[in-house]
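User: Hello, beginner here. Can you help me understand these amino acid letters and fold codes? It all follows right here:
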Amino acid sequence: MLYRKFVPPIHLRPFVECFFLWENSLLLSKSLPIESPPTGFASMVFNYGTPYRVTSQKLNGGLVPKNFLTGQATKSYQLQLSGKIGMVGIVFRPAGLNTLFGLPMYEFSDERTNLRDVLGRCLDEWSDKIEEAASPTERIGLLEQFLNLQLLRKNPELDRIDYTANLIVEQRGVVNISDMMNELFVCRRQFERKFLQKVGVSPKYYARIRRIGSLCSELAQKRWQVADWQDIIYKNGYYDQSHFIKEFTEFTGKSPSFYVKNNVELANYLK
């Protein structure tokens, strides 16, 4: 099984975190569950493999659209894959989808929305090209072309929301939102309203999501050991152990120790 991330070209990096490709050479003989905590990133996904299901607080194991947009995940979710895995996607920086496409991101939180319903029939042509492409490189190149055309149409400019959301990502969610807004000399209510529009959740909640997402990624890749819990609590800005456990369980539905021993997160498949 191959799961790869691709760094976007320089001109797309203000808007795109990465591209990804996920394929398998052998058909899955049984359902494969893959879990993911909330990561802090929205995405567009083009599926040319077997349709799959998603289970979350909002989605009850139904099939997701062939090509879809997903906004901010506010809790963990699980993919149920089967048959042929074949998909490519664009992972956007926290405000990137709104900045590039002007979409109200609060409408897409915890959803898998058919891309055709959002962007129109033009998606059919791109979907066909991606499905017919002869190589991973060609598929990623098509995603870049798709965004390049939107960049030319929109000619977007980054604003304070982009800056703040990107800074929260860089700081792994360990930030003081009130201090950040004071430094920007902005009206708190107006700023929070614009942040909700561009990112999909409030600034404070986004910082919590990003902190958990970043931490889970490290745990899944075995960078931490169970003996390092106190170090984890300190470095990630939690008040104490009980606060850490409560926060972790709220977002993932599992205790930290259980998660480390039993996670089947997508990070395990990264190459």
Q: What stands out?
A: Strands lie at 2-6, 16-23, 28-36, 43-47, 53-55, 60-63, 67-70, 77-83, 86-92, 112-114. The chain is about 45% helix and 20% strand. Residues 2-154 form a domain with the Jelly Rolls fold (CATH 2.60.120). The radius of gyration is 19 Å.
